[in-house]
Specification:
By secondary structure, the chain is mainly β. It contains four helices and 39 strands. It starts with a helix and ends with a helix.
Length: about 550
């Protein structure tokens, strides 16, 4: 029995030694497995011991780099806190506990990641049917990006997928993007664009996958823009017009009206589909533009309006040109038709003084020039204003002076074969350059003269024509005519031609007269008595022969 007791006692001592050894100095670190810490967050590593009442702790990295954290030890526990976590915390950390001569060490690996935000979806522009657009999915501040996978989907249809497997040269936060270019169709209206980003790390699923959706707003650029006009595009002054514009598109285009100005600039008028213009004026004529506009474009339609002025006419009398004799009175009359209340103004073309009296009443205005003088020789303009319209008519006033017949003077008595000078003068003529003079003998033109020389000033002049000729006895009884013409076509009541006449009496020269001697004169007288006596004798002889006898006494009786 004693031997059995010894065996039992030895076995018990051995079991106690094993139990005591099992309750010896131990160290643990939490969390137990490698940890994934998000950059910017706070992470604590806890090191604890058993089997030692008063252990001492120390922390270090495996490569002896700075801890970049705060250590706090109390009792059998020591904590290393990293707040905030940064790239300097991505290490294998070792916790060493010392209890007397015993030392224990435990390590843990800290991995970092950054995946703080949902992806962002960006479009290169509005989605227009038929026009290419680029969709970009951005994943900001990612680490490590070589674990990132991004997919872009339209509804459940995968457009593109990409894994970013390129090596990382440095530790840094990266923004990665995925681009897809596609052409929207009308079938894409109200579809959803999905950007899904997955960071393949050992964390909970909700932390390693992020997703953003964007409902597609598809647009159709404005088209088929139309304009209706009532009553017409041709209008009278004072009238009104209504123009209605319509345009197709998605979203429905907004309508804008404008008027095209010079050089193509547009003057905004209205943002309504209907544009009404009232009390139209001439200057309202022009091109009006309707534009259908939405986010992706515009479509224009032009319409031209023509505003016609109320027709009125201006007449000026006595005509477009009038000739007035110096010293007389002339009245210019300006009349209007088609305007109830016109206003009149008179002026000369060179804006010289009118030198006349204006009188306006109703639709007529007169300008009276009396007496007419050289300062009245102008082109006169009558300006008529009716509302906003102006019309102008002109009349030219030409002056003339041609008051008397020509004066004709012969230098002396007309003697056959002797030269004589005839002078013809026309006094107080204006304008002299329009004067023509002729000297005629009978119907034969002896001399003609036109006064075409320039006259420096306006004045009354005397035109003269002079000619020397040799009369003959055949010229006696002929008429010498001095004829003057003033060539002004506007002359009506006054003669264009004046003339003076003189009958020619030409004397013979002394050498041409007949010479009678006294003997011849006696013979002439005797012969004039004898010839009648002979005639009577012959007569009575014939009478006697017829009766057979002849008695002079009887003959004389029968005569009685």
């Amino acid at each position: 029995m004693p031997g059995k007791m010894v065996v039992i006692s030895g076995a018990s001592h051995l079991l106690w030694m094993v139990f005591a050894a099992s309750q010896a100095f131990k160290i643990e670190i939490l969390p137990e497995s490698p940890i994934m810490a998000q950059i910017g967050a706070s992470v604590s590593l806890t090191c604890s011991t058993t089997g030692c009442e008063s252990p001492s702790f120390s922390w270090r990295t495996q490569i002896d780099s700075p801890l970049n954290g705060k250590v706090r030890s109390a009792g059998t526990t020591s904590t290393l806190t990293m707040d905030p976590v940064s790239f300097g915390n991505e290490h294998s950390y070792l916790c060493t506990a010392t209890c007397g001569a015993a030392k224990a060490e435990r390590g843990i690996k800290v991995h970092l990641y950054s995946f703080p935000k949902d992806p962002e979806i960006h479009l290169s522009g509005p989605l227009e049917v038929g026009q290419q657009v680029t969709a970009t999915c951005l994943v900001p501040d990612v680490y490590p990006f070589d674990r990132l996978e991004v997919a872009l989907l339209k509804d459940n249809h995968l457009l593109k997928n990409q894994e970013f497997l390129e090596p990382m040269e440095t530790k840094s936060l990266e923004t990665k993007s995925l681009e897809v270019t596609f052409t929207p169709t009308s079938g894409d209206i109200e579809t959803v664009l999905v950007c899904r980003a997955t960071l393949h790390i050992d964390v909970d699923e909700e932390l390693r996958e992020r997703e953003t959706t964007k409902e597609l707003q598809v647009y159709i650029s404005p088209k088929n823009t139309t304009v209706s006009v009532s009553p017409s595009t041709r209008l009278q002054e004072g009238g009104s017009v209504t123009m209605t514009c319509a345009s197709e598109g998605l979203p429905a285009p907004q309508i804008f009206w404008s008027k095209k100005l010079e050089h193509g600039a547009l003057q905004p008028l209205s943002g309504n589909a209907t544009l009404t213009l009232i009390a139209m004026r001439k200057e309202d004529s022009g091109i009006y533009v309707c534009a259908g506009v939405n986010l992706v474009g515009q479509d224009m339609k032009e319409v031209e309006l023509l505003v016609q002025e109320k027709p009125f006419t201006v007449e000026i009398s006595p005509g477009p040109q009038v000739a007035a004799e110096l010293g007389d009175s002339v009245m210019l009359t300006c009349g209007v038709r088609g305007c109830e209340s016109p206003s009149f103004s008179w002026r000369t073309q060179i804006d010289s003084p009118l030198s006349g009296k204006v009188r306006s009443a109703g639709t007529t205005s007169t300008l009276t020039l009396s007496p007419v003088s050289f300062e009245n020789e102008h082109y006169y303009l009558c300006t008529v204003t009716c509302g906003r319209k102006k019309l102008e008519k002109g009349i030219k006033v030409d002056l003339y002076s041609f008051p008397r017949d020509p004066e004709m003077e012969v230098s002396g008595t007309l003697v056959s074969g002797s030269p004589v000078t005839v002078r013809c003068q026309v006094p107080d003529v204006y304008p002299l350059d329009r004067l023509e003079m002729q000297l005629l003998k009978g119907e034969s033109i002896m001399k003609n003269k036109n006064f075409l020389e320039d006259v420096d000033k306006k004045s009354l002049e005397t035109g003269s024509l002079e000619m020397t000729f040799i009369p003959t006895t055949e010229d006696s009884g002929k008429v010498l005519v001095c004829q003057a013409q003033l060539h002004i076509d506007e002359l009506e009541s006054e003669p264009k031609q004046r003339q003076s006449t003189q009958t020619l009496h030409v004397d013979r020269r002394e050498s041409d007269k007949d010479y009678f001697s006294p003997g011849l004169l006696v013979l002439y007288c005797v012969s004039s008595l004898i010839i009648p006596a002979i005639g009577m004798i012959i007569y009575f002889a014939r009478k006697a022969n017829m009766k057979g006898s002849y008695s002079l006494v009887e003959a004389q009786k029968s005569k009685v």
